[in-house]
Automatic annotation (TrEMBL):
Keywords per UniProt: Membrane, Transmembrane, Transmembrane helix
Organism field: Streptomyces solicathayae
Record-given protein name: Integral membrane protein
Entry keyword annotation includes Transmembrane: yes
Transmembrane annotation, as ranges: 85-103, 115-135, 178-195, 252-271, 283-305, 317-340, 360-382, 394-416, 445-466, 512-535, 555-575
Extent of Gly residues compositional bias: 783-808
Positions of region (Disordered): 209-236, 763-808
Record-linked SUPFAM superfamilies: alpha/beta-Hydrolases
Length: 808
């Protein structure tokens, strides 16, 4: 070790690392300077400084009054370009992945925790099969089997002429039509595989470099030089943000399941024909193929049920044989099914629907059973360590899983209904009497329950509206007391009180989600029962019922069908608008900022986890800067940035955490994450973070709909984390210091409050004095540049013109 030059025992270098929240921010806005320079990072996520602060570490005397500001911009991880709008189609997968992380704390029940993970992964697998089955329904059943087999349907669609059954072409046989149409669902599965593989490589494959253990927490059992207890919290484990092995394994299983679903759809119709025609050889081949498909499907289930994430260590090992073999075997079986279906069968005519209509009923029943089982497991976990702040008494995960299934059903049903309506012309999908038979009858029943679900939602929405109005009236008196107003302005008071009341709607979200999920489960069960009672015969969904009930059901089915179609069209339109409109793209980015914080542990086709890039970035920067300069550091996170900041602090080694202060504001750490993800941000975890970090302060407002208190009490000589709620607006009316009315800021502009600078200064004052700084000729730390490393050098192309970030 090279000798170090002594530094003053007070003051010294201090850095404020700013992390923005949802929706993104530019470095110019964060640093309040048009001249900013990217000092380390790339176009996706990077650290920025003002041009005047590049050599701040060499002149600490200039920054005696305030720390050097440095901004970490990560918005391009979630909303960088228009193609991200396509991720809207992966919304059910993302919601299912969230359900994995919403489990209650383990309470020592490791086996129950593993069972919870297995159930969520199985439910995620059903969503992949559902999406593939819907693509098969549209391409194989409605188009190739029904429409191409109907002269009336083909006559108005010349592009289907070469498939027409009455023209006697090579493709006119039903099996060959199905084999050709299978290109559509196969391409869909291939696209999902490609996106999952590409996004993992681009965003999440941040392989820890040599010397990772110098920055991240070592595995449990490793002696801590400062005596820190083990085991570490989940977010502090070395492998938490590196789930390569599980993602690769699940990607192989889901890809294989998709290909096997297509193979079963193609093979099923030909197998039914061969058994009915009495062809012994082809029937035996059909049995062999179907047995092979079933065996491969069983292997997919076993792979999905295998042990989940390994977080205690950085797992570099990938099951390469399994990952490569499973999709390959499924492709071979798919090719065999296509060849089998395309075999010449003169005289075979397509009639009715494909034999796979029952698939949708099996999927819906399976999803319902998995959600119920997940609820039982979640309740068992919650009772082992109950906390009244936990959302829905631990049932948040099952409820969100039910919403994922509902989203998948609406999206797939909407596509099938709209395509059937388009092909059928003047007919009504599923009503019979048209050019085609229509989609499975279950989709008609599912459409009929949607208006009922909307009517059910009217009641809780009306209750919330009344409660908010009454709360605003109660808050009016509190507003006047908070500001000490002698002659209140009713309009001003009403506006502030209404904003506070509206911000409280966030806390009502668990109840609303519970009502929607419960109603969806019951109505879905009713739809399955209705489809079963009608014999699963398309066009006879409501036969046998009382005339009044049948009429109401038909009206509900027609209304629901159009609502599904309208919703899907709106969905696609929003995606197209986001591709062209930066503001809409930013709105979608906010959705992903909240929904894709967590790694892909249940569904490999979910949008990528940006935190697997952002958290290591922050961890490396804090560790390398404090090691190189010996200075004090406060990491300042707003909104979602506070969650990233807390996760990064958890990953720091103990000696670095004790030189870091945490400042959070507008933070959803307890209000959202603590309630919905109690196993990771529950009260025990937040109190542990308070004990590990040197000092922590949290700011919030009563008018903030997202941020709130973290509810961590004082611990020995450490004060409580929360400061009293900040007044918003800063002043009630006009005065000499504020001659114009101050706005109600809500969730934004916390730095505008003088309390922000005061709390930041207090945190820095509580940090230990600066340590002696390393000599400039010492080798740079592997984790990143501190002081003036190559990435921060003057004249570096990385930091100036070529980066495109040198000026605003």
């Amino acid at each position: 070790m090279s000798p170090a030059t002594p530094a003053p025992q007070s003051g010294g270098a201090a850095l404020e690392l700013l992390v923005h929240g949802v929706g993104g921010a530019t470095p110019q806005d964060m640093l309040d300077d048009p001249r900013t320079v990217r000092i380390t990072g790339d176009a996706t996520a990077a650290m920025h400084r003002r041009g005047a602060d590049l050599d701040a570490e060499d002149h600490p005397e200039r920054y005696a009054e305030q720390p050097v500001p440095e901004a970490y911009c990560w918005s391009n991880l979630t909303s960088g370009n228009g193609t991200r709008a396509l991720w809207l189609l992966l919304l059910p997968f993302m919601v299912a992945n969230l359900a994995h992380w919403m489990r209650p704390p383990a309470g020592g029940r490791r086996g129950t925790v593993r069972l919870y993970g297995v159930l969520v992964r199985l439910l995620a697998l059903t969503l992949t099969v559902l999406l593939t089955a819907a693509a098969c329904e549209v391409a194989l059943d409605l188009t190739a089997w029904q429409c191409a087999g109907s002269t009336a349907c083909v006559v108005d669609r010349s592009w289907l002429g070469f498939l027409a059954a009455d023209r006697g072409g090579w493709w006119s046989q039903p099996g060959r039509r199905l084999a050709l149409a299978a290109v559509v669902p196969v391409a869909l599965v291939g696209l999902l595989w490609y996106l999952s593989n590409r996004t993992w490589s681009a965003y999440e494959a941040q392989r820890p470099p040599t010397g990772y253990d110098d920055v991240a927490t070592p595995p449990p059992g490793t002696p801590d030089p400062e005596g820190e207890p083990r085991p570490r919290p989940a977010l502090g484990r070395p492998g938490f943000w590196y789930g390569r092995r599980l993602v690769a394994r699940l990607r192989a299983a889901h890809t294989a399941a998709g290909f096997l679903t297509v193979a079963a759809a193609v093979c099923g119709a030909a197998a039914r024909h061969d058994r009915e025609s009495g062809s012994t050889a082809l029937a035996a081949l059909a049995w062999t193929l179907e047995a092979a498909l079933a065996a491969a499907g069983l292997v997919c289930l076993l792979v999905v049920c295998r042990r989940g994430r390994s977080e205690k260590r950085v797992d570099h090992v990938v099951d390469r044989t399994l990952v490569a073999a499973l999709p390959t075997v499924s492709l071979i079986l798919l090719a065999a099914a296509l060849v089998y279906a395309a075999w010449s069968r003169p005289g075979w005519q397509s009639a009715g629907t494909l034999p796979g209509d029952a698939t949708f009923g099996v999927l819906v029943l399976s999803q319902g059973a998995l959600v119920v089982a997940l609820g039982v497991v979640a309740l068992a976990l919650y009772r082992s360590d109950p906390d009244p702040r936990t959302a829905m008494y631990g049932l948040g995960g099952p409820a969100v899983a039910m919403l994922a299934c509902a989203l998948g059903g609406v999206m797939t049903g909407g596509v099938a209904q709209r395509v059937a309506d388009w092909l059928d012309g003047p007919g009504t999908p599923g009503a019979g009497g048209g050019r085609i038979v229509g989609p499975p009858v279950l989709l008609s029943w599912q459409a009929s329950v949607i208006p009922v679900l909307l009517l059910v939602l009217v009641v809780p929405c009306a209750v919330l509206a009344v409660r908010t109005t009454l709360a605003a009236r109660r808050y009016a008196a509190a507003v006047d007391v908070d500001y000490g107003v002698e002659t209140p302005d009713p309009v001003r008071t009403r506006r502030i009180a209404s904003t506070r009341a509206a911000a409280g709607l966030t806390d009502a979200a668990p109840g609303l989600v519970g009502i929607v999920s419960g109603a969806t489960l019951l109505l879905g069960a009713g739809a399955v029962a209705g489809a079963w009672s009608s014999g699963n015969v398309p066009g006879r969904a409501f036969e046998g019922a009382h005339p009044v009930i049948a009429s109401a059901a038909d009206t509900a089915q027609a209304t629901g069908s159009w609502l599904i179609g309208f919703g899907f069209i709106l969905f696609v339109t929003w995606g197209r608008r986001a591709y062209k409109d930066a503001s809409a793209r930013r709105t979608i980015g906010i959705l992903w900022d909240v929904g894709t914080f967590w790694p892909r542990a249940a569904h490999p086709f979910a949008p990528p986890c940006y935190a697997e890039r952002a958290v290591p970035d922050l961890t490396w920067r804090m560790s390398s800067w404090t090691r190189t300069t010996g200075g004090r550091l406060v990491i300042s996170g707003h909104s979602q940035g506070s969650v990233l900041a807390a996760a990064a602090v958890w990953q720091l080694p103990a000696h670095t955490r004790r030189r870091v202060a945490l400042l959070t504001y507008g933070s959803p750490l307890e209000r959202l994450y603590g309630r919905w993800f109690p196993a990771y941000f529950g009260p025990h975890q937040l109190r542990a973070l308070h004990g590990e970090v040197h000092c922590w302060r949290n700011l919030y407002r009563a008018t903030d709909p997202i941020g709130g208190p973290v509810r961590v009490p004082a611990d020995g000589d450490k004060p409580a984390v929360d400061r009293d709620a900040l007044l918003d607006p800063l002043v009630y009316g006009r005065d000499h210091a504020h001659p114009l009315p101050e706005p109600v800021l809500g969730h934004s502009d916390y730095q505008a409050d003088p309390a922000f600078a005061a709390e930041r200064t207090a945190l820095l004052d509580r940090l230990p004095p600066a340590l002696p700084r390393q000599r400039s000729d010492e080798p740079a730390d592997q984790g990143g540049s501190g002081g003036r490393g190559p990435a921060e050098g003057h004249g570096s192309s990385e930091g100036h013109g070529s980066s495109g970030r040198s000026s605003g």
